[in-house]
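To: structure desk
From: M.T.
Subject: fold request, one chain
Message: Could you run this one when you get a chance? Sequence is below, nothing fancy, just the single chain.
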Amino acid sequence: MGAKIDGISIIGSGNVATHLALAFDEHNIRITHIFSRNNTTGYSLAKDISAKFVESISQLPSNQLCIVCIPDDQLIEIIEDIPKGIPVAYTSGSVELDDVKSNNQLGVFYPLQTFSKNTETDFHEVPILIEAKDDEFASTLFDLGCQISQNVYYANSKKRREIHLAAVWMNNFVNHCIFQATSICNEFELDPKLLHPLLQETVRKAINNDPSLIQTGPARRGDVKTIKKHLEMQEGMRKELYEKLTTSIGNIYRND
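Reply: Done. Structure tokens follow.
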């Protein structure tokens, strides 16, 4: 069992920081300080959870965990500014532990979920992946994760990078396909809600079955005539995406 955490500071006030802070607050885990380069959202988040908003990293307490919830391209720079001695965990799925040069006790507390500020998330179901440069700190972060989620796992940087790649396909690319479908509906003056039952059934089937066994559609059937008609209705990047996805599906089922 890891060391007990009496208080937490959070750096960031975006989607991940907001949901994580609210989850901790809901489980009576004290967030004492919030630092954010965005004073408006930072102050608002601090107010929501009765924490203190500070305008400088140097004002963060030196005797408690600091969780850094900021975009990957800013992460290393921010962590380098955190005073030595403060234990630090960051929430990135793709930044490897060895890439972060820090004299602080360092670990990863990665919630594997997509977050939007105005959308509620049941954190109890969110997988949290844990890694640290020493076993005791890893255990401390693991115990912390177990207080807000029933799905907490140890995962080294290689495994975290692999699951992050899969997550981009599962979430970001799927959402982009939904955006494209919605755009098609809007262009042809169709109600996108017509597709919502289809979307719900697609996700339900994918969760409960091997996706390779439930693939349907013209690419799966090798329906060249329908594919040609669809291509004639599209242009630009959307047409290119349709062609590439059709080719990918066709290659998988070519010998069926």
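Reply (cont.): The longest strand covers residues 106-111. Let me know if you need anything else for the meeting.
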